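REQUEST FORM: STRUCTURE PREDICTION
Request ID: SP-0412
Submitted by: Lab K.M.
Chain count: 1
Length (residues): 106
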Amino acid sequence: MMQPPVSLGKNITFMHPAYFIITGLSGIPNIRHYYVFLFFVYIVSVLGNTLVMALIYLDPKLRTPKYVAVFNLAFVDLFGNTALVPKVLDIFLFNHPQIPYNDCLT
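STATUS: Completed
RESULT:
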């Protein structure tokens, strides 16, 4: 299903699809069993990044620019994983290989 074209000016039109179909995960045997591993990796990632952020926030000696950069990296990794892993789990568990255009853009 295509979205209606959006006019960007004189002769420029931008069209985007409603969703993308992910085909790279269709041939993996026993794909439903990978969610346990993926869920474990997600939990370790969330706990690890939260621990790093808490240590940097709570210790006043770790307020140097180097640790501020590490805090920002942990923050971005935490929210990146929170956006990506649930969609991959949805693909594994419920066989929904579509991802909406706006979700993919995000």
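NOTES: The chain has a mean pLDDT of 82.
Reviewed by: T.R.
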